[in-house]
Every structure is written in C-alpha cells, then in structure tokens.
Specification:
Helix content: over 70%
Structural class: mainly alpha
Number of strands: 0
CATH architecture: Orthogonal Bundle
Strand content: under 5%
Family: Belongs to the binding-protein-dependent transport system permease family.
Largest sheet: none
CATH topology: MetI-like fold
Subcellular location: Cell membrane; Membrane
Keywords: Membrane, Transmembrane, Transmembrane helix, Transport
Transmembrane segments: 24-44, 51-73, 79-96, 147-163, 183-204
Shape: elongated
Membrane topology: Multi-pass membrane protein
Number of domains: 1
Radius of gyration: 20 Å
C-alpha cells in the first residue's frame, strides 16, 4: 500500500488523532501561559527571584520527556493526566523567561506617568506593563507551542492522545507493510499542525500588537 493509499484508508483515525493532538497541546499551552505569566509578574521586579524562576523552569527541560512521563505514571496513572502535567511543565520556560524580559523592558517613564495620573499597581500592570510586554510574551508562547507539538508525541508511551500513537504503532511493527506509512503519517501530521499553530500566532500578533510596537 502506498503512502497516499494509506492516508485515504486511515483518514478518519488520523483526523481523530490530529484533533486530540491539537486539543492536548492547546489546553496545556493555556495552562502554561497563565502559570508562566503569573510567575513572571511575581518575580520580574527581583533579580534573584527572576533568576530562580528561569533556572527552575530550565531545569525541567533537562529531564528527558520520556523519563518524565514514566515517572508520573505510578503517581497519576496512564492517559491524559501524565500528558497534561508533562506538557504544561515543559512549556513554562520560554513563557516565564520572555515574561520577565518583557516586563523588565517596559520604559520606566511610562510606568511613572501612569502612576502620576493615579493608576493603582494592578491597573498599571494590566493596562501599561503587560500590553507593552505582550510581544515578547507571545514569542515565548510560540516557542513553547513548537516544543510541545513534538513532545506531545511521546505521550503515546503513557496511552496519551494524539498522533504519537500512530508513530509508536509504526515503530512497534517495523518490518510490516504499513510501518513506515504509520511513522510518516504521524510525523508529517505533527509538522503540519505545528506550522498551522505558528501561522495562527502570527495572525494573533498582527491583531493584538499595535503597528508602532511591532516596528
């Protein structure tokens, strides 16, 4: 069976796996973004706190993803739980780092001006600092998403959702008629989804970042 024939024969399963892959990555990115920005907001004013936050999240990336999922299986079981925890933790570093860099890069005179007109600390953060720090934060989100698209394939090891199941099935049946087709279908599917995600972030940036800040 050729690759194109395989796609035609298995398109329903591939679409289901692709949807689950996108859903898992998107939901974990939402969680990682909220946590990452919160960590950045809490730590960016302190040099040592910011360094600790970046170092801690960077340390997570030194753990092989397969090992991380394997260590979580005895604690939370198979399926969605180890996938969500692993992807969320692995997605933190670029968001935390870029949040801290972006917030520290806001012009202090703008913050002082907002303070001078009576804005409270939360108002300055939400209406001045975070909007100006949004471009680097969005860049961090883009980087995290690209990382997680690949890491999510490893979730199949723990019976997680996504196109990784197609890849693992192909690897497990190497030598059979459709083994290579399975690996190619899963891999190309992940690449295409990653490109679509990135295009969506480019569009989001154009819609949410004023032209003056983009330039």
């Amino acid at each position: 069976m050729s690759f194109w024939e395989y796609l035609g024969d298995r398109h329903q399963q591939l679409l289901t796996d692709a949807y689950q892959h996108v859903s898992a990555v998107f939901q974990c990115m939402v969680i990682a973004t909220v946590l990452g920005v919160l960590i950045g907001v809490v730590t960016y004013r302190s040099g040592w706190a910011g360094a600790l936050a970046i170092t801690s999240t960077a340390t997570i990336l030194t753990i092989p993803s397969l090992a991380a999922i394997g260590l979580l299986i005895p604690l939370v079981g198979l399926g969605v739980a180890p996938t969500v925890i692993t992807l969320t933790l692995y997605g933190l570093l670029p968001i935390v780092r870029n949040s801290i860099v972006g917030l520290r890069g806001v012009d202090p005179s703008l913050v002082d001006a907002a303070k001078g007109i009576g804005m409270s600390r939360p108002a300055r953060l939400c209406r001045v600092e975070l909007p100006l720090a949004w471009p680097p934060i969005l860049t961090g989100i883009r980087v995290s998403t690209q990382m997680l698209m690949g890491i999510a394939a490893i979730a199949a090891y723990a019976s997680g959702p996504g196109l990784g199941n197609e890849i693992f099935r192909g690897i497990a049946s190497l030598g059979s008629a459709n083994a290579l087709n399975q690996v190619l279908a899963g891999t190309l599917g992940i690449v295409i989804l990653a490109l679509l995600f990135d295009a969506a972030y480019v569009l989001l940036g154009r819609l949410t970042i004023p032209r003056g800040i983009r330039v």
